[in-house]
Design a protein that fits this description.
This protein has 394 residues and is mainly β. The chain contains four helices and 16 strands. A hairpin with a 6-residue loop joins strand 11 and strand 12.
Length: 394
């Protein structure tokens, strides 16, 4: 019995095979591995018009995380708050690798000279999962670098509240998957497992878990994001808490002329404070709950030349603080207002005012003397810093 050969089907299969081979060959010939150097730096000419005069003493009393907290009153100086130098190399259509170095006035050698550390070193594998990338190495976390910080757009002026108050990490060493749920890119996600040490080497053998879900609505003008992370710390490696859980909500409206956003972080630090009863000597291990609220807005006054921005933060290092608690007791309010002048593309001159006020939640003694800073209360003056911030991108 002879088998009848369907020549039409064979021709069709051969045609499809040839077309696919030509297409793949064309793509392979079109793609050429390539790399680029990129970077930025920003700093200030600043004058500290108001603060307590004894820099360094604040650490004892809970100074907060302000970049200018330990600068003496009446100090005038130039600073480099950040210098970034990076290289990106596109290995293939699916693989990209990056390395980023960071330096600043705060990162110095034992002899007092500026130095640098590895901020970012990762490999991106694209579309192993549809509409997603997998990142290996020291990479940006889902916390804020690619959402609230990017939307705020003025990292050169100040960190986001989550970053500035050190509630979570900008980068971590681990594995991350980020992508969109739908083909239109409206609903996104990002999940990561890392060491929890940021850019520092691992030292406790425990991991930190990060996750975020986002939606871009109203033609992607409205961004809504919820974020959370969890980090456990065993008794062996305990450093002031047994675990930390951070939650954050972020919402922003973005248009060509105006952007405004709200970021609300909340963190529970388990077993972070130990109170001792003055009478019985009994010790209680209690949780600390940090809470913050940040509002920002900026808009264009002259298109591509002049913007104006404003931001206000309020932060409670321990929103559950009660009289006698052994925890950091300052509430902080932060405000900045300024103009962003762009004489040339990627060159920004930003005159602004930087103000942080502090309120000690502990009870003020009747015989309190600020000059001696005695007792468990310290009345801090506000940090007020007029600045000319410069920001360059290349």
């Amino acid at each position: 019995m002879k088998t009848k050969i369907n020549t039409k089907k064979i021709k069709l299969i051969l045609s499809i095979t040839i077309m696919m081979s030509i297409t793949l060959s064309s793509l392979a010939q079109e793609f050429k591995p390539s790399g680029k150097v990129y970077g930025q730096f920003f700093g200030d000419l600043y004058y500290k018009a108001s603060s307590d005069t004894t820099a360094g003493a604040f650490n004892k009393y809970g100074s907060g995380n302000s970049e200018f907290a330990n600068v003496k009153k009446n100090t005038t100086a130039f600073s480099f708050r950040r210098i970034y130098l990076g290289y990106q190399y596109n290995i293939s259509p699916k693989f990209t690798t990056r390395i980023l170095l960071e330096s600043s006035d705060a990162i110095i050698t034992s002899s007092g000279e500026k130095t640098a550390f590895v901020k970012l070193a990762d490999l991106e594998w694209k579309n192993l999962i549809p509409r997603a990338s997998i990142f290996f190495g020291q990479t940006f976390t889902p916390a804020f670098p690619l959402s609230s910080e990017k939307t705020w757009n003025y990292r050169a002026v100040e960190k986001t509240i989550s970053d500035g108050q050190k509630l979570t990490n900008a980068v971590d060493l681990g594995i991350k998957v980020s992508g969109t749920i739908d083909t239109a890119g409206i609903f996104g996600y990002s999940f990561m497992v890392g060491n929890g040490r940021g850019a520092k080497p691992e030292d406790n053998g425990l991991q930190k878990f990060y996750g975020s879900l986002s939606a871009q609505l109203l033609k992607k003008k409205l961004l809504i994001e919820i974020y959370g992370d969890y980090e456990d710390v065993s008794a062996k490696y305990r450093k002031g808490y047994s675990s930390k859980m951070t939650m954050k909500g972020f919402i922003a409206y973005r248009s060509e002329r105006l952007t405004a956003g709200i970021e609300v972080p909340y963190q529970i630090q388990k077993a972070s404070k130990i109170n001792t009863d003055a009478v019985t000597g009994n010790r209680d291990t209690l949780d600390v709950a940090a809470f913050g609220f940040s509002f920002f807005a900026y808009g264009s006054l002259i298109k591509e030349k002049l913007n104006m921005f404003f931001r206000f933060d309020t932060y409670q290092a321990d929103s559950d603080y009660k009289k006698g608690d052994n925890s950091r007791s300052y509430d902080e309010n932060f405000m900045t207002l300024g103009f962003d002048y762009t004489p040339f593309k990627n060159m920004h001159i930003i005159p602004n005012i930087y103000v942080t006020t502090y309120t000690d939640k502990r009870e003020k003694p009747a015989n309190y003397d600020k000059a001696t800073m005695a007792g468990s209360y310290y009345e801090r003056s506000a940090d007020v810093i007029p600045r000319l911030t410069y920001f360059f991108v290349f």
